[in-house]
Amino acid sequence: MSAAAFTVLxxxxxxxxxxxxxxALLRHRLDERFGTRAARVRVGSAGTRALxxxxxxxxxxxxxxxxxxxxxxxxxxxxxxxHLVHEADAxxxxxxxxxxxxxxxxxxxxxxxxxxxxxxxxxxxxxxxGPGRADADPAAGWRALLAAAPALRGPTAPADPAADxxxxxxxxxxxxxxxxxxxxxxxxxxxxxxVAAPPRAAAQRSASSGSASVAVSGW
Length: 219
Fold this sequence. Notes:
By secondary structure, this protein is of the alpha/beta class. It contains eight helices and four strands. Strand 1, helix 1 and strand 2 form a beta-alpha-beta unit.
């Protein structure tokens, strides 16, 4: 894992649709919310069966341009490997299958690998120490979130495990790309709300002890 700053790796299958979309949305909102401090968080993406060297799918790129105001440039697909997982402080995947692939590469990454909807749900369940500070350090916020999150997997798990997955949009209509972008953007907001106002220390201790009470506490 990285010694400085904080590195987020976003993973899907081909690395031309969902993962570059989620990574671009995360980068965009980090920059908007944290300004120059956002540079302390690095965001990249990869695919379990990447179309290595290919750019972002044109439909995905159009939708991203609508949402962020900027079309992705210079982003090419790359294959997920053990080194990328090792270097990542957090791995955000699109499906449970991707999560299993990451853990197969590096079992030690299990506690820092989540589907994006899963981490968003956990983030929304964590009590915070107050409203987000204007001078919050996003790298420190990410570390606090990742320290508290593993204990909340069970208490916040959905009745249908498939709710943690983001469906592939390959060869799907542009409307589906757009709805996927909206879902990913909402998940990013939940995660960054927790990053901006990290979980209370007491909540983290409660989560570590296995208490489920933290899962139902409001912000």
